[in-house]
Amino acid sequence: MRKNTFLVLLVGAMLLASCGKKAEQQKAPIRVETAVISAADGSDGPSYVGVVEEREATAVSFTAMGVIKRMLVDEGQMVSRGQLLAEIDGTTMRNSVEMAEATTRQARDMVRQAEDAYAQAKDAYDRMKILHDNGSLPEIKWVEVETRLKQAETALNTARAGVASAQAAEQIARKGMADTRLIAPVSGVIGRRQLNVGETALPSQAVVTILDISSVKVKVSVPEAEVKNIHADSPSMITVAAINKGFAGGRIEKGVQADVMTHTYDLRINVANPNHLLLPGMVASVQLPGADGNVSSGIRVPITAVQQRVNGGSFVWTIDAQNKAHRTEVGVGPTIGNHIAITNGLFVGDRIVTEGYQKLSEGTHVVF
Predict the structure, then answer these.
(1) β pairing state of 307-308 and 314-319
(2) What is the DSSP string of 203-225?
(3) 3 state DSSP class of 285
(4) What is the third-level CATH fold of 56-89+181-210?
(5) pLDDT by residue (tens digit) across 131-155?
(6) Hey, what CATH topology would domain 91-178 get?
(7) Chain CA centroid to CA 15, Å
(8) Structure confidence by residue, pLDDT tens digits, 20-50
(9) First vs last Cα of the chain: how many Å apart?
(10) CATH number of the domain located at residue range(s) 29-44+298-368 in this protein
């Protein structure tokens, strides 16, 4: 009886321990207060409309004229350096190669014949020279032997020059044949296809344009009164509505010639684009904190939302689409009242934690 009672107690203890572990594993989400960053949070800083541009555009063309027989790429297709893009009809070039090969073979046959004739003349010369040196050969005969050797040597040199000329012509024909194939000189995405199958391609006429979008540039026009406050390393925040994403801008290239009508200067902001999400032609909203000379420009968040790392860096807690918390590194500017300017790291649409962050850790599930 005592043994059965002990077993019941032991099983009960194990069940309680198991329930306790499950309860620990399935912690309830932590309740926090959050705020979504809106355009108004950075309204004191200048905002511009920009357009995404490719890093570099390469127009690819044939070096020979011909009718396009095949087009192997479409607009928007990614291509690699060395990839075949198109071909023109190579019938004429192929015939030229065959003729050049035949000419080369004939020239080589002539060289072999000339070499045989020279060898015979040289053998006769060597034998007659012994007689000539002994005084046993009439002078007129010796002159004939020398003449035949020189003629054979001249014929051999001419035949060898003919081979060299034929080989050069063959190389030119083969180059022309190779030029019927359009090869990608760089990697990128096909931006525009200028010609189609059946159309005649002219030398140096662009057939396709390859765009390098491994990184892109966002072009904006800035009034002359504000451009003086923008430098190559000025921070920028770029939002692209087409893909609903924000990006931190990189190095800024500043134009030096103003538009005579609008008195604006073109800026191009470099943006990394490893996933090729940004495409040429997309419209972007660009914020340039400090472009108007106001050092407080930028997104503003409550001071309580910004935390300090041991190493001196700053971060805020952001909430992703699965309601999980993440530490996000930010750059901070001056304090304005009970808010602080964020110079980089946050974008319009980000949700940040304003209260209740004390119990958060990376990946914590939250409710708000």
Answers:
(1) antiparallel
(2) TT-EEEEEEEEEEEEEEEEEEHH
(3) strand
(4) OB fold (Dihydrolipoamide Acetyltransferase, E2P) (2.40.50)
(5) 888 888 899 999 999 999 999 999 9
(6) Helix Hairpins (1.10.287)
(7) 60
(8) 444 444 568 899 999 888 655 554 557 889 9
(9) 54
(10) 2.40.420.20
